Amino acid sequence: MLSLYVPGRSLVHRAPAGLKLGLLAALGVALFLTERPAVVAAVLVVVLAVGLLVARLPWRALAGQVRPVWLWLAALFVFHLVATDLRTGSVAVLRLLALLVAAAVVTGTTRVTALVAVVEWLASPLRVFGVRPARIGLVIAMTLRFIPLVAEQAARIREAQAARGADRVRWGMAVPLLVQVLRMAATVGEALDARGADDAPDRRSRPRAAVAP
Amino acid sequence: MRWRRRPPTDAGTPAVTPAAGIALRDVGHAYGDRVVLAGVSLTLGERRVGVIGANGSGKSTFARLLNGLVVPTSGTVRVDGLDTRTQAREVRRRVGFVFQDPDAQIVHPTVAEDLAFGPRNQGLPDEEIDRRVEEMLDRYELAGHRDHPAHLLSGGQKQLLAIAGVLAMRPQRIVFDEPTTLLDLSNTRKVGRVIDELEQDVVVVTHHLELLSGFDRVLVVEDGRVVADGAPGETLPWYVARMD
User: Fold this and answer.
1) A7 in contact with chain B, both atoms CB, cutoff 8 A
2) pTM here?
């Protein structure tokens, strides 16, 4: 999500974010309605085709989403070989692979703003309880924005501590990191004020991408 | 050049007229018991005003007072007649603010999305938001980075994005709080050129004195007071001599 969007003008890119998220959710349900490996494998092939041929996403973009979890998938497969059978293990792994790739296609073809707008739209009924959907969207966007920044700060603190002889840094970095994050949070709060975040009107219409593709 | 604070000229009359710009009247600010500004009375009507002073002198608090991010604990700050204490939202629409660290100012994950943030908060139609985003991307050579994650930009590009994000809101004035402190020489000069080319009135707080050479007026802040106020040709050499 942090940097997964791949600019493009394909049919998949231009499809509404709400539709893509809806189809992803439906796929998640549908894949658990079948136990036939051939069907699940076929779904995986179709999802890959949509991602690579229709959306024209680079292979790297899809593989990059699978790489962090391949060990878990392998472990799951081995577990099923021991605990159940080859067929069940194949279905379980193919199912998760298909969902992972489908999610990668959605995030690779949809701007964060558009995804956040869907969340805001979905949260709009909560207005009756005093919830401001725009705030929820902003929190999600800012979380995605600041994760790499906090990671950078953590790396800087690790370097600073290592430079002063603390080679095995574990919990020792928590306090300075917390101090830096809180300090930054104060400035970010000011920036939000300065940029009119308090004035933001709640989105009442159906969501759309905030910036033209 | 005035070596003492300028006395208020508008006592007994409506604080300022719309043309008068930003007016501070006997402004003070304290964080708890720590007084960071005291007795500041002046009117900023010039196109380009610089603010200099040592670390901890009160410059950043002074800058934040100008668009209502900080409200004075005594006295009043008015922007075109609007009181920053009671009309902060309207003031912030008129006075943009660029922070020292662009990373704290960029709140959306990608460049174009962040540019759209301010205009969207202003409730502008989607078409107008798109138009302003395109304009800013082109103007600051960010078009090639439209969908790039903001955290992967260089320091100079981040500061340009922060400035563009403010300009997309079309403020009448912009306050810069040490916009070049984190930049190398090349990017400092680039940001300096960008500030020079702005149509808006600007107030620039900085340690880079060369940025202020063409300015109309420079204030020197020391221990929470404006101790010098005049043309850069007079105030800058005086300040440099005082720092030696």
Assistant:
1) yes
2) 0.79
Asked whether residue B44 is domain-assigned, the answer is yes
- Does any domain span residue B3? no
Number of helices (H), then strands (E), belonging to chain B: the values are 8, 10
- Nearest CA to A173 out of A190, A184, A181, A161 is that of A161
Structure tokens at A75: 């472990």
| Interface A-B: count of C-beta contacts within 8 A | 118
Instruction: Read off the pLDDT of each residue in A35-44 and give the average, rounded to a whole number.
Output: 94
Q: What is the DSSP code (8-state) at residue A54?
A: I
Measured between CB atoms, does A151 come within 8 Å of chain B?
no
Q: Are A194 and B96 inside 8 Å of each other by CB?
A: yes
Question: Which domain, by its residues, includes B83?
Answer: 18-243
Round to whole Å and give the CA distance between A66 and A47: 14
For B68, B139, B174, the CA distances from B168, given in Å and listed in that order, are 19, 11, 12
Q: Is A205 on the interface with B (CB under 8 A)?
A: no
- CA gap B101, A85 in Å, rounded: 57
B150 lies in a domain? Answer: yes
Question: Which is nearest to B54 in space by CA: B36, B72, B68, B42?
Answer: B36
Judged against a pLDDT cut of 80, whether residue B172 lies above it is answered with yes
Nearest to A149 among B103, B120, B129 (CB): B103
Assembly ipTM? 0.80
Closest CA to B156 of B175, B184, B123: B184
Whether residue B144 is contained in a domain is answered as yes
| Gyration radius from chain B CA atoms | 18
Single-letter amino acid code for the residue at B27: V
Indicate the length of chain A as a whole number: 213
Distance of CA A123 to the CA centre of its chain: 18
Question: What is the CATH number for B36?
Answer: 3.40.50.300
Write out the DSSP string of B189-211. HHHHHHHHH-SSEEEEE-S-GGG
